[in-house]
Write a structure and sequence with these properties.
GO terms for molecular function: peptidase activity. It comes from Salinimicrobium profundisediminis. Residues 16-83 form the Adaptor protein ClpS core domain. With 91 residues, the protein is an alpha+beta fold. The protein has a domain at 31-90. Helix content is 42%, strand content 19%. Helix 1 (33-43) packs across helix 2 (48-61). The chain is elongated, with a radius of gyration of 22 Å.
Length: 91
């Protein structure tokens, strides 16, 4: 009877932690609730309820985080919000 040895290789698994960023939407005196809601639905993939809640927070609190993710994902979204006339930045 022969003995078999199994050698298990230890593999170092490195998880690359990506820093998460946020798009913050700011209140302004120009855009309507409907425009803000429609834009958030399209650009940030919000549900209608989520977009409405964000628009109310922006109106009453002055700002609201509308999307969280990697910078690579948020940059084009923030650009589209700005193109639509909204005030937003990535933080």
């Amino acid at each position: 009877m022969s003995a078999q040895e199994e050698v298990l290789e230890k593999k170092k698994v490195e998880t690359k932690e990506s820093k998460l960023y946020e798009i913050v939407l700011y209140n302004d005196d120009y855009n309507t609730f409907d425009h803000v809601i429609e834009t958030l639905i399209v650009v940030c993939e919000h549900t209608p309820e989520q977009a409405e809640q964000c628009s109310l927070l922006v109106h009453y609190k002055g700002k609201c985080t509308v999307k969280t993710g990697t910078y690579k994902d948020l940059e084009p979204r923030c650009g589209k919000l700005l193109e639509e006339g909204l005030s937003a930045e990535i933080v």
